Amino acid sequence: MRGSLKTLLPVIKLFWIERGASLALGAGLSALAMLAGGGLLGLSGWFITASAFAGLTAASAIVFDVFVPSAGIRLFAIGRTAARYGERIVTHDATLKVLAALRERLFRGWAEPAAAAMMIRRPAKLLFRLTNDVDALDSLYLRVLVPAVVAVLAAFAVTIALSFINPILGGLAGLWLVVICVGLSFVAGRMALKPGRRRAHAMEALRARSIDLVAGQTELAMVGQLRAQRRAVAEADRRLAQADDDLNRIDSIAAAGFSLASTLLLTTTLLIVAWLTKQGTIGAPAAAFALLVAFAATEPFAAMRRGTLEFGRTLLAARRIAPRLKPDAAVRVIARPDAGYAFQLTNAFAGYEDDTRSILQGLSFSLAVGGRLAVVGPSGVGKSTLLALLAGEIATADGSAACLPAARLTQRSELFQDTVRGNLQLAAPDADDNRLREALATAGLVHDIEGLPHGLSTRLGEGGAGLSGGQLRRLALARLLLRDTPLWLLDEPTEGLDADTARAVLERLALAAGGRSLVIATHIRREAALADRILLLDGGSIVADTLRGTLEFEMLLDRLRPD
Ligand SMILES: Nc1ncnc2c1ncn2[C@@H]1O[C@H](COP(=O)(O)OP(=O)(O)OP(=O)(O)O)[C@@H](O)[C@H]1O
Prior knowledge:
By secondary structure, the chain is an alpha/beta fold. It has helices at residues 2-54, 58-63, 67-111, 113-121, 123-136, 138-165, 167-215, 217-222, 226-279, 284-297, 299-302, 304-309, 311-321, 383-390, 420-425, 433-442, 446-450, 469-481, 499-513, 525-528, 551-559; strands at 341-352, 355-368, 372-376, 396-403, 406-409, 487-491, 517-521, 533-538, 541-547.
């Protein structure tokens, strides 16, 4: 229980900071609607019974005051409708605004290089979580917090109302509501924790596997795994159905429990008020009032049912989202280097989540502003990892790294289902078509794009479908060229291009770079030849650092893949 509270606290805190007043007002209006509903039922019962008795004799009919109770009934009826209407507007508006703020905060966090790198590795899973978890949190306020506040207030109000009739009856009813109804909610909530979590995981697996099945159909068919993938989808579906069954069973048990608790409360109240009436302690109208108040008393507790059933899912969502709400969780912004340097590494160790020290092992190196560096070495040695470190996507596990703001062209740049223009403007939202054409020309793509029927307005499919692999690579390069950062990090920028195109692109790239610093990770001679310094990595360390004009520089170039 304490663990659950600890998990929920950061989320509740954010809710409070964002829309505390509206959320409190919503809960207040909800409580008012409940009180007015109970009052309406009780007073109507009293009034109908009292007027029936008053009508028995002419004398009592004349003196019976119909105006005050009927005004009260009207007040409760209008009050209940108004409070219910206001509550719906206020609570839903506040919830949607809180969730929008939460979404914005999370998306901003995920857009930072370090987080984005993590997102790119597991996009489907993380995106499901981001959207579904945020949605799941709306039940925290609407279905857990508000009903809980209203239910506790209802218990309090019933105790007071019935105490006017008989203090023991009031006390018993209040105690019954708190112990039995709160207890039932608690037990149902606990029982639903595991199936709720299982349902969320199964739903995630079902979606991810279905997407893999659709997106990877050809590959799965080629390797004969189509049937296995279908089985995996069916298995996730079975787990989802099983979790749904479990939740439905708990829901039915909870519904039966609430119904029983309500009937027992009503029966006990009936017996007590019947006895009190027989004793002459209370009249029939008061008995009717008490019965109807008891009848209305369990309704707010039953409203908690849905929230308690979804509590497992809500808790899981909060657990996954809460760490990203901490101010320090978001962003590792890489430090800035000393003046005159594009980057500085001092005994830098870095790697990925599972082993943060394993890839780069104690690199010490600095590049002066305007320097052009090629990083070479066997496949898998950590060239791209070095670029990721400089781009601030991963952090040093030991030592230090400082770098100027950088734009990075990765080996697999993402292109979007948008126009060519839209894809380019991601890097420079205000760039006009002339500037976009300039970047395309530098990347050697302007003729290809102008040859398309809609030019810059041509829409690309998913992942840039509609252009060849080499064209996509150059489009990604053109997008990088639009980034006005002092350092460009290029990972095999002309891989996949024919030698002539590649050479022309590199020439224009060198010109477009101007005074910028460049770091190029490569296996290809023509790309490394752009640099005035070559760094050879092996075993996670620098094994050679050579300057243009030296024999070692030429020897390193000669070891690379010819054009
Ligand atoms: N996102 C990642 N998560 C975990 N490990 C990774 C990740 N990216 C790379 N690695 C691992 O880090 C090591 C270095 O990879 P990196 O991509 O930096 O090598 P590289 O020198 O650029 O290789 P290549 O020349 O083939 O592009 C590899 O063993 C790889 O498996």
